[in-house]
Amino acid sequence: MRVTALTGAGISTESGIPDYRGPSGVWRTDPEHEKLVTYEYYMADPDIRRRSWLRRRDHPAWNAEPNAGHLALARLPEAWIVTQNIDGLHQRAGSPPERVLELHGNMYGAVCTACGVRSTTQEAIDRLLAGESDPPCLDCGGILKTATIMFGQQLDPATLTMAVHAAQECDLFLAIGTSLQVQPAASLVSVAVEAGARLVIVNAEPTPYDDLAEELVREPIGTALPRICAELIGADPS
Ligand code: NAD
């Protein structure tokens, strides 16, 4: 059976990384957050950039470990994993990197917004801590940012195209730990269903796509996914 999983912040909460819109999500608890992840504000204000790098430095993903949900998906090496997460935990759990499509990029990489040259987030943070208040690109002097997609930015077209194919060509589409409120990621659910896939949503809270699902699973992801993935490969859940 061809499986495509769309994952969101909810798969990483059991690794200690807060989600956005869940009951303790940063969207509800941190009024500053929207500004720090919106491209327009970031580009316009050096102080937002400084605070954004510091926020990255303190991100819980640096010290997080993959949980049972990530590890269960890694037992399906042929599956496509389309993730909205920027924490790299699917790859660290053992999912083949070429099967993980990071729709919203990755927080460990940095990119120059002017010339596109790549560097690392760690390097930018080190420069900031060494005294540069707004470390520019070392090649062209342009504004640096993490290689993540902020609100107001387009997704990488090649990654999105691959994600659409993965949604169209699967027999089972799993939507896991996502409130399905961020587009275009959420629309992959409809793409999969219209192409004939069965849809299973594993999420603690209702989503706008629940009516399309063959099954809604409300259990914690770390409990539900080992069982679901074991059933898919016909193995013992442990
Ligand atoms: P979201 O916060 O909007 O929704 C997460 C959903 O997961 C919620 O409905 C919540 O009820 C559910 N959930 C949380 N923990 C769960 C668990 N253990 N078991 C079952 N359900 C659980 O997340 P989203 O839809 O991914 O959209 C948020 C955006 O924020 C994405 O674009 C993503 O890039 C970004 N983000 C990423 C991370 C990360 O990389 N780990 C963390 C926060 C936000």
From TrEMBL:
Residues 1-236 form the Deacetylase sirtuin-type domain. Keywords: Hydrolase, Metal-binding, NAD, Transferase, Zinc. Pfam families: SIR2. It comes from the Bacteria. It comes from Thermocatellispora tengchongensis. The active site is at H104. Gene3D superfamilies: SIR2/SIRT2 'Small Domain, TPP-binding domain. Its EC number is 2.3.1.286. One of its GO terms (molecular function) is NAD+ binding. PANTHER family: NAD-DEPENDENT PROTEIN DEACYLASE (PTHR11085:SF4), NAD-DEPENDENT PROTEIN DEACYLASE SIRTUIN-5, MITOCHONDRIAL-RELATED (PTHR11085). CDD domains: SIR2-fam (cd01407). Residues 1-24 are annotated as: Disordered. Zn(2+) binds at C112, C115, C137, C140. This is protein acetyllysine N-acetyltransferase.
